[in-house]
Amino acid sequence: MSISAVMVKDLRTQSGAGIMECKDALKESNGDLDAALELLRKKGTVKAAKKADRSTKEGAIGGLVEGGKAAIIEIKCETDFVARNDKFQELCGNLASHVLKTGAVDTADELLGQPLVNDASKTVKDLMTEKIHELGENLVLGRTAMYELDGAGGFGLYIHGAGSIGVLVEVTCSDEKAAEKERFTDVCRDLAMHIAAAAPIAVTQADVPADTVAKEKEIFTAQAKESGKPDKIIPKIIEGRVKKYFTEIVLLEQAFVKDPDLSISEFLADASRNLGADISVKRFTRLQLGE
After folding, report:
1. Is S-adenosyl-L-methionine tagged as a keyword (predicted)?
2. Is residue 125, in this structure, part of any structural domain at all?
3. Domain check: are 154 and 78 in the same one?
4. Residues 36, 8: contact at Cβ < 8 Å?
5. Are 68 and 111 members of one domain?
6. I want to staple 224 with a disulfide (CB 3.0 to 4.6 A). Which of 42, 156, 229, 265 is the partner?
7. Are residues 66 and 193 in the same domain?
8. pTM over 0.90, yes/no
């Protein structure tokens, strides 16, 4: 298969590897970009690639917290100019409000077919069509999430800048009065901001998909063999690398962005002592344009 300069450039952008290394990996993988990237990782040429590093699409993420409910939504557009337009930002807010009131959906098509909460004569698709004509660009609904409290607790919502990253995190609290304190609100916001910056993929180790861990172990094993490590010590090396991997992707094990001397688990323990109530993270959604 012929390997084009564009293919090599794309792989270099994602991997940071050299031109010849990328070209050889693409040849070996028969032009499959994802397979070539994994091959480079196995050879130790590149670290784990994050989808966030490859974000290129324009748009914005909007969110809303109201009472015991919260919602977050992604809307894509063609240019940064439109993404920063007040009318586009208003659309994000209005549709976040719609999702909060109607509940989460499995697909964008399902959301598009819903009547608008504030005008049942129109559907969400009708509103999107109007805005496409008004703004002069194609607009596409992305991902959504809606949370509803089933006990004492609260939400942390953080939208970065004009909406390139958005985080919604649900935090539980064992005491209703403690959940109403300003300190608890601060904890929720700190967690949302941390998730935006650190990009965890799960709350606990148990939440990390087994196939994800298996894939990383396979890559770590290949890297160890590539570096010439004796087979008898490879299991110990893999154990250490998996442990480090969890500190990078598991929320409770990550170093707190605002105080790297604390893990998020330790931060929550301190906050629980200060509030006199048990605080824990139930779930979170992190959206980044281009993922």
Report:
1. no
2. yes
3. yes
4. no
5. yes
6. 229
7. yes
8. no
